[in-house]
Amino acid sequence: MDNLLHAPVSQLRREIEYLDFRPGQLPWARRVAEGDRDALRELAKALRACHRLTVEPYWDRGRSELVALSTRSASLMLEGGVDLLLRSVCAPQVRWRPPVLEAPYPRRVDVHLEGRGLVITPTVFSKHPVSFLWDPLDTAQPPRLTVPALRRPLTGTGAAESDGATVRNLESLLGRTRAAALRVTAEGCTTSELARRLNVTAAAASQHATVLRDTGLITTSRRGGSVLHLITPLGLALLWTGALTQP
């Protein structure tokens, strides 16, 4: 939403220029293209509502799949470097023929990175198996290759559906505060955010995060001057069932 509300008018015009609108929608679309603040806020409000209905109920499980894929990709990098990683990206749709990475696209086009790099983005909601996104008018931003992260469709809703018995089981296993900490990390949080949500000191929040991390229920990575805590697939499974089970 922040990117949308602060996008330059030149980008808004490019994005909207080739979209088809019904006649009654054209005045509003022109206002968006010109960067009208009220029109952009209206669009942002609609996108948030769409997110609540179509993304939010599945996001915890989707992120679990993304974490698992990230772990597999890191292992491939350690085992065989970039070459092995690129060979594993969504074969056979994507083919690595050094020094060229071939991916499906509506028309034949050669994109030269020229030092910009390539962003490989796993997706859980795209209807296309593979997408290649690039802006020929913006040579500063790296192109983005999106590939599917799922091996099976997302079903159900998320951890928010846990019933009272599951919550009680989780609290009995971890303790009420630590169980609450695990639930907070399902959304991603810094240590200060965790402390605020739990109404505890930063030191206590850090201790809870350390215990959860040492038991493999969350991961912690540095983001600038703070750290980000994220639930792992194991932690998410515990959150759903209220008990740890061995595969």
Strand and helix layout:
Layout: H1 2-5, H2 9-17, H3 26-33, H4 37-54, H5 56-88, E1 95-97, E2 100-102, E3 119-123, E4 131-133, E5 144-148, H6 164-174, H7 176-185, H8 191-198, H9 202-214, E6 218-223, E7 226-231, H10 233-241
Parallel strand pairs: 3-5
Antiparallel strand pairs: 1-2, 4-5, 6-7
Brief summary of the model shown:
The protein has ten helices and seven strands. It is an alpha+beta fold and 247 residues long. Helix 6 (164-174) crosses helix 7 (176-185) and helix 8 crosses helix 9.
Describe this structure in words.
This protein is α+β, with helices and mostly antiparallel strands and 247 residues long. Helix content is 50%, strand content 13%. It has 10 helices and 7 strands. The strands form 3 sheets. The chain has a 3-stranded mixed β-sheet with strand order 3-5-4, with no helix packed on it. A two-stranded antiparallel ribbon has the order 1-2. α3 crosses α4.
Nearest-integer average pLDDT:
81
* Percent of residues in β-strands: 5-15%
- Gyration radius, to the nearest Å? 22 Å
Helix/strand-derived class? alpha+beta
Low-confidence stretches: 157-163, 243-247
- Main sheet: which strands, in order across? 3-5-4
Distance from first to last alpha carbon: 39 Å
Order of helices and strands: HHHHHEEEEEHHHHEEH
Q: Could you describe the largest sheet, including whether it forms a barrel?
A: 3 strands, mixed
| Percent range of helical residues | 40-55%
Q: List how many beta strands DSSP finds.
A: 7
Globular, elongated, flat, extended or rod-shaped: what is the shape? globular
Q: How many helices in DSSP terms?
A: 10
